[in-house]
């Protein structure tokens, strides 16, 4: 089971700013040109929509989202299995599939080699072995997002 993650204050403040920009339709480009989307998912307890800005990973025409731990949006996405991605006033419904550690490790390894700016959160480098990547993703859920 993934550990619960509580974002530091500066991350929460940045999320508020990014969410506001994305809601009004301003294009936001993240680190190393990773596209930033607003992911909206239904709350598992309240049923109310909850939104969080995320940098999507792209590999072989597929889109993935990785996280530092099992925060509320991760638990909500697991429960709902679907979400809405918004970027520049365009929205699309997506389904989410949590990747098993072996598959997530391959995706993460490729992203780290491409210069993934958040690799330090996973404790891996470009020189890490596949086994190190597999152990790193155990506490860091990764989802594949597919258009409905």
Automatic annotation (TrEMBL):
<protein>
    <submittedName>
        <fullName>Nitroreductase</fullName>
    </submittedName>
</protein>
<dbReference type="InterPro" id="IPR012349">
    <property type="entry name" value="Split_barrel_FMN-bd"/>
</dbReference>
<dbReference type="GO" id="GO:0016491">
    <property type="term" value="F:oxidoreductase activity"/>
</dbReference>
<dbReference type="Pfam" id="PF04075">
    <property type="entry name" value="F420H2_quin_red"/>
</dbReference>
<dbReference type="InterPro" id="IPR004378">
    <property type="entry name" value="F420H2_quin_Rdtase"/>
</dbReference>
């Amino acid at each position: 089971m993934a550990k619960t993650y509580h974002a530091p204050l500066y991350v929460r403040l940045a999320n508020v700013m990014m969410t506001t920009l994305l809601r009004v339709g301003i294009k936001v480009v993240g680190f190393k040109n990773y596209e930033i989307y607003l992911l909206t998912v239904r709350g598992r307890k309240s049923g109310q929509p909850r939104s969080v800005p995320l940098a999507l990973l792209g590999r072989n025409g597929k889109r993935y989202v990785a996280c530092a731990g099992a925060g509320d949006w991760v638990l909500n996405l697991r429960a709902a299995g679907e979400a809405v991605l918004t970027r520049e006033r365009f929205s699309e419904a997506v389904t989410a599939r949590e990747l098993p550690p072996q598959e997530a490790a391959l995706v993460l390894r490729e992203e780290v080699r491409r210069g993934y700016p958040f690799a330090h959160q996973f404790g891996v480098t470009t020189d890490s072995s596949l086994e190190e990547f597999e152990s790193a993703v155990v506490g860091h859920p990764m989802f594949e997002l597919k258009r409905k």
